[in-house]
Amino acid sequence: MWAPGSCPARRPVLMATLPVPDAWHESYLPPAVNGGLLLAAGGSAPAEPALVALVALDLVAAAERFRVSMPFAVRGVEGSQVGLPRPLPDDRILLPVYRWDESFTVYLIDADGRILREDDLAAGREVELDVYGADVAVKLWQEPLAVGAGAYLASWVYRARSWHLQCRDLATGAARWEAPERVIAVAGDVAVTETEPGGPGPMER
């Protein structure tokens, strides 16, 4: 962590360095900042028997506050893909985790790191929703989660040819609606989406 100092001419000072698990395929996602916490999406970690999906770092104390671990995919660490964490106004966290050819789940995590709920976005429709594709390598790409009006949007693209978007109730995790779209940008509680190529015109939500 760096502290820029009060004077614009002052050089940044390194305050602390904190290790985090390797992100999947060494492709690092930008961390999210929530109050005094920096939330880093994780991956494999030495001597860890499970996937370290999220690490929360205290920006003031320059120390790890908590980490969230969960079982690996059947393929092991290479079969697990953690998406960008999304902080909520009440300090809870939404975290999407894809397990190749197995599941796509959004976890609701408490401010102390406890997993409160698991929303299975496929729920028995893995083939229909392109979560299961029998691929030798990952072909599903997650888009950022969007939150607003008591709901959240989760979207993903499979092989750049099939787009999926789900709106889920934030309180219960129940699905509200689906569309062949993906989230391309998030600003506050507003999400910009685009439709699947060759599909219908723009859809208003």
Give me some keywords for this one.
single chain; 205 residues; mainly beta; five-stranded antiparallel β-sheet; 19 strands; globular; disordered C terminus
Strand residue percentage: over 45%
Q: Between the first and last Cα atoms, what is the distance in angstroms?
A: 39 Å
Rg calc: 18 Å
Shape: globular
Q: Biggest sheet, in brief?
A: 5 strands, antiparallel
Mean pLDDT over the residues: 83
DSSP helix count? 0
Order of helices and strands: EEEEEEEEEEEEEEEEEEE
Low-confidence blocks of residues: 201-205
> Based on DSSP secondary structure assignment, what is the total number of beta strands?
19
- For this structure, the quaternary state is single chain
Q: Which range best describes the helical content: under 10%, 10-25%, 25-40%, 40-55%, 55-70% or over 70%? A: under 10%
Structural class by secondary-structure content: mainly beta
Describe what this molecule looks like in 3D:
By secondary structure, this protein is an all-beta fold. Helix content is 0%, strand content 48%. It has strands at residues 2-3, 13-14, 22-23, 32-34, 37-44, 51-58, 63-70, 80-82, 86-87, 93-99, 103-109, 115-120, 140-142, 146-148, 151-158, 162-169, 175-179, 181-187, 190-195. Strands 3, 4, 5, 6 and 7 form a five-stranded antiparallel β-sheet that branches. Strands 8, 9, 10, 11 and 12 form a five-stranded antiparallel β-sheet that branches. Strands 13, 14, 15, 16 and 17 form a five-stranded antiparallel β-sheet that branches. Strand 5 and strand 6 form a beta hairpin. The chain is globular and about 55 Å long. It starts with a strand and ends in a 10-residue tail after the last strand. Mean pLDDT is 83; it is low at 201-205.
